[in-house]
């Protein structure tokens, strides 16, 4: 009987030694979910704890990538010591329904371990017709002139800059247009056109028709812009009548225009054939008329001022 008891004690001691030997070098992996029924958007905590590491390395999914995509991770922190590994994840779910946290892989010293799965139910706690109240009552603040200036100063300054920019652009366009239509500019441009006509050598070649057509076109354009008379659309007789009633063009200039325009009409319809000397004379008379036009305008301005 004593021998049997001794044998039993010996076996129990051996079993205890083996049991302790096995678990003395093992790790404990555990996980905990704070709540399994969550409100929509509620933040809850999920923890993973590994103890008895004995300095072994732990490898798992990177931060913010441990849980499936339905679980919006708000915070993911890892605390590792030589003997303990702790990972704390705060997350929320923004869809109603049931979702599963699957077994999560953790490699401890090269060996694979997994956590237990969890089923999470997400519900919408808001009810139809619920009244949403402010946490605090609105606070009334009395604003002064300085406060309103700070609030709206950039709008005011932007508006003033825009107005100033529009005014500057308007003045530039107006000045450019005035310069372009000024008597001096128009006179110089017409003199350049006459020089270009001279270079075509219509006079020397006896091409009197082309000469008078272009000479009268240049003159009509000049009268239209310089004297504000619609010479570009009026017939010769009508233009002569308008010039006589207008009184802007001097009688000397009016006589030049009338003679050359009437002669141009006769040439155009082959009723007269001017010689080279007459064409030269008409060209010089139109050129002189263009140069004298500024005096007509100055006189007209003085007459209006009086």
Overall outline: rod-shaped
Average pLDDT level = 82
List the helices and strands in order: HEEEEEEEEEEHHHHHHH
Number of strands: 10
What profile does the largest beta sheet have? Answer: 4 strands, antiparallel
The proportion of residues in beta strands is 15-25%
Strand order of the largest sheet: 1-3-6-5
Outline the low-pLDDT stretches: 9-25, 302-306
Q: Evaluate the radius of gyration.
A: 52 Å
**How many H/I helices?**
8
The level of helicity is 40-55%
Oligomer: single chain
Structure, described:
52% of the residues lie in helices and 18% in strands. It has eight helices and ten strands. The chain has helices spanning 2-24, 145-181, 183-199, 202-205, 208-227, 236-246, 251-268, 276-305; strands at 28-33, 37-39, 44-51, 58-59, 72-80, 85-92, 97-101, 105-108, 111-114, 118-123. A hairpin with a 4-residue loop joins strand 5 (72-80) and strand 6. Helix 6 runs antiparallel to helix 7 (251-268). It is rod-shaped and about 125 Å long. The model is unreliable at 9-25 and 302-306 (pLDDT under 50).
